[in-house]
């Protein structure tokens, strides 16, 4: 046992790794931590990544350090389980990503010229990633796009991958035409059912909207997060006004809430 390291406020990564090892110790560790598996920790990892993104979106810099620590803990958790099962160690994880960064940046760490645009470097990066996918046996164009991604983000990445081999609309106007077509099909499905067809047409609509976002240079996941926060902000504002008058959303009419919504919208200059 290395209590001196665990209690060292400046212990850095060695301290965190030691803490995780102790938490997972079968005899003296934490019962909850001992019971965790790859499958139970994975959802926390996704959640922590979104909390990092949320702190950045809100520019909550005082919170960001803590959120990054929570995300780092997930990596340490997986590394400890990997060590226990003889799969890999934290050092091997760090070495692996270091090797990848060096290999993918020959213009920084090798002999290639740095006299390239960011766009050219992005193309070179994609060529290198494609080569790595082939080495891993991922021969198909869409292989390797993670199943665990949020559906909207996965749609975006699938379309981006397909576009690299020319399977794409020429411009955003063509995507807009497709959206109009999908909207008509969704309306027909909603009118006649069944539910499976409605769900299918709704999926088609969302998929095409993700494609439009790509053509417009917009991250659809980020755009939807911003709109979610906008909705929360404006609804909270109308709720505050109602509470101040002794009322609540449940007591107000739709017309009253709509008027308060519009007032909240006007109070945010430059916002749609």
TrEMBL record:
CDD domains xrefs: NTP-PPase_MazG_Cterm (cd11529), NTP-PPase_MazG_Nterm (cd11528)
Pfam families with a match to the protein in the record: MazG (PF03819), PRA-PH (PF01503)
Top-rank EC class of the record's enzyme: hydrolase
EC number(s) from the headed UniProt entry: 3.6.1.9
InterPro entries the record matches: MazG-like_dom, NTP-PPase_MazG-like_C, NTP-PPase_MazG-like_N, NTP_PyrPHydrolase_MazG, PRib-ATP_PPHydrolase-like
A GO molecular-function annotation: nucleoside triphosphate diphosphatase activity
Domain of life of the source: Bacteria
Ranges for domain NTP pyrophosphohydrolase MazG-like: 36-109
Keywords: Hydrolase
Coiled coil: none
NCBIfam families, sorted: mazG, PRK09562.1
The name this protein goes by in its record: Nucleoside triphosphate pyrophosphohydrolase
Native species: Tropicimonas aquimaris
């Amino acid at each position: 046992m290395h209590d001196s390291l665990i209690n060292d406020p400046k212990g850095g990564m060695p301290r965190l790794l030691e803490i995780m090892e102790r938490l997972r110790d079968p005899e003296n560790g934490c019962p909850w931590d001992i019971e965790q598996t790859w499958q139970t920790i994975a959802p926390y990892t996704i959640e922590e990544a979104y909390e990092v993104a949320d702190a950045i979106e809100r520019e909550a810099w005082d919170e960001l350090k803590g959120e990054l620590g929570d995300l780092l803990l997930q990596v340490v958790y997986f590394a400890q389980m990997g060590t226990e099962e003889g799969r890999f160690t934290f050092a091997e994880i760090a070495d692996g990503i270091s090797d990848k960064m060096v290999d993918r940046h020959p213009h920084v760490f090798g002999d290639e010229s740095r006299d390239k645009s960011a766009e050219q470097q992005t193309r070179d990066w994609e060529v290198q990633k494609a080569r790595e996918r082939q080495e891993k046996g991922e021969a198909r164009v869409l292989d390797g796009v993670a199943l665990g991604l949020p559906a909207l983000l996965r749609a975006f990445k699938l379309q981006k991958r397909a576009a690299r081999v020319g399977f794409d609309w020429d411009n955003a106007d063509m995507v807009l035409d497709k959206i109009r077509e999908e909207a008509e099909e969704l309306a027909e499905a909603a009118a006649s059912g069944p539910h499976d067809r409605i769900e299918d047409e709704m999926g088609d609509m969302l998929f095409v909207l993700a494609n439009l976002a790509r053509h417009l240079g917009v991250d659809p996941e980020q755009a939807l997060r911003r709109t979610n926060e906008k909705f929360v902000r404006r609804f909270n504002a109308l709720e505050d006004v109602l509470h101040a008058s002794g009322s609540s959303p449940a007591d107000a009419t739709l017309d009253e809430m709509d008027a308060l919504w519009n007032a909240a919208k006007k109070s945010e200059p430059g916002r749609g």
